[in-house]
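Question: Hello, beginner here. Any chance you could explain the protein record under this note? Any guidance would be welcome.
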Amino acid sequence: MYKLSPPIADSSETYDNSVATIRAKGTQSIYVSAAETIKQRCRTFDLLASSQQFDLAREANFRVPELSDSSMMADLYDKQFARGLLTKDTRDSIRNAAPNSICPYCGDGIVAQLDHYLPKSVYAGITVHPSNLVPSCRDCNHAKKAYAPSLQKSAILHPYFDQVLNMRWLKASLTLNRQNSPIVDFQVSVEPSNIQLEKRLRAHLEVFELYKRYSIKAAQLINDFQAMLTSEYGQNMDLSEARLHLQRHTSNLYGGRINSWEAATYEAMLTSDWYLSEYLGLS
C-alpha cells in the first residue's frame, strides 16, 4: 500500500471527451445537457477527498437527473471512456502513475485495471472523474467489488488522498498452526486513541482480503528463509548472523514502502526469539 499523486486530467475535459465519441446525436445531446451537473458532482467528490470524509458520500448527492437512469453513466464509461481514443491519454496516465505497475491498494499485485474508488453503480455523477479512478490489480478490484462506505462502513484508503499511507501501521507476528508450522498474522498498529483510523485501516485489509493474501505470501517467505539456512550459503549461520541477515532485509524493504508485508514479515521473524532459537534451533 502506498500513496500516489492525483491524476492531472481535468474532470470536465474527460467527460466532454467521453461524450464526444458518441455517434448517436440524440443520445449525445442528453449527455451534453448533463455536463454542468457532472461538474458539480466532481466538485462534491473533491470536497470529500480534501477532508478524507468519504464515509459521508451519499448516493443522492451524486445522481444525474438529466439522465434517464444511472446505467447511462456506466454505459458512458464502458463504451466511450474505456475505449475511446480521446480518453486514451487519461486512461494511460492513471495506469502508468503506479511505479513499476504495482497496485497501490495492496502494494503487491500488478496493475491491470482501473477501479472506481466510489462505485459507478452507486455514485453515477463521478463515473468518469479521474480522481475516482485508481490503478488496481485484478485481485484487489475483484475483492472490492462495489464497496461503498457509509456511517456504518468505514471507507477504505484512497491512494491519492490518504496521508496515513505515509506512516507505518502494518505489523506482523508469528504463531504456530495446528501442524506446528510458523504462520504470520498481520495487524493494524496505531495509537489506541485513534479508533476511527484503526477502523479504516482494518476495513482496508478486510475489503481487499489482505489479511489472507499477505499471510499466504508470508508463509512462502518463511519457507524460503528456512531453505536458505540449509543451503551452502546459510548452513553455518548462527543466531547473530541470522538476525543480521533478517535485519538487512527489513531495512531494505522499509526503505522502499513503509507498509510492506515483506518487511513486516521479516521484522516478525527478526524479533521472535522462540522462532529463531526454539523453532529453528539457532544459537
